[in-house]
Amino acid sequence: MKPTVIGFGIFAIVPDLFVAFLSIFLTIKLWFIIEADKSRVSTLTQTLERNLYHTFIFRTTALISLYTLPYMGIALSILLNIQNPKVGIIFHTLIILQSVVCLIGTILMIKHFRVYIFGCCISKKILDSSSPSASNSNGIPTTLTARSETLPPTSPPKLPPLRLNSVLQ
Fold first, then answer.
1. DSSP 38
2. Which among 6, 97, 115, 139 could bridge 144 via Cys, Cβ 3.0 to 4.6 Å?
3. Which has the closest alpha carbon to 71: 22, 9, 26?
């Protein structure tokens, strides 16, 4: 094995391992911050922090299992001179799936993202799931309704749809 191949392999693997260890460290640090703030925050904030923590755990697990491990497999197959295209295809497919899995997991785990995305995709108008009449037949909320407690309730405003053309310009 050539020393340059080994050098480039180490140069490629070390930053990837650093990102994995950093994500584990930050997830643990977030847990301690949430535990320290429990007595000073409201129940709603605790719920949001718990959702954030579960999302961090999910994303860290997905990062390690669907990015770090396949990347290490690619590096080891190069270092051990294993020339099997199927192994490379499997590893690269797992790396590509990591971003899709993280996106879908975040949307499904965090209620506000889920409500906004379903509200933009489904044209039905349903109140927030916190109200008793807020769910449709399958239980998925589609819009988020913001109301002021001091004003009399009126027809709930609908969130504007996300316009990608205006965002990209």
1. G
2. 115
3. 9
Q: Nearest Cα to 118, choosing from 98, 139, 99?
A: 139
Q: What percent of the chain has pLDDT over 90?
A: 17
Q: Which amino acid, 71?
A: Y
Q: Give the total number of structural domains in the chain.
A: 1
Residue 141 pLDDT greater than 80, yes or no: no
Decide: helix, strand or coil at residue 159: coil
Total residue length of the chain: 169
For 28-61, the pLDDT digits (tens) are 998 998 888 888 888 888 888 888 888 889 999 9
pLDDT tens for residues 91-139?
Answer: 999 999 998 999 888 888 887 777 877 777 775 554 444 455 444 445 5
Whether 15 maps to a domain, the answer reads yes
| Contact yes or no for 118/141 (Cβ under 8 A) | yes
Distance of CA 119 to CAs 36, 107, 145, Å?
Answer: 35, 12, 10
Q: How many CB atoms lie within 10 A of CB 71?
A: 21
Parent domain of 101: 3-109
**For residue 77, is it within any domain?**
yes
- Whole-model pTM over 0.85: no
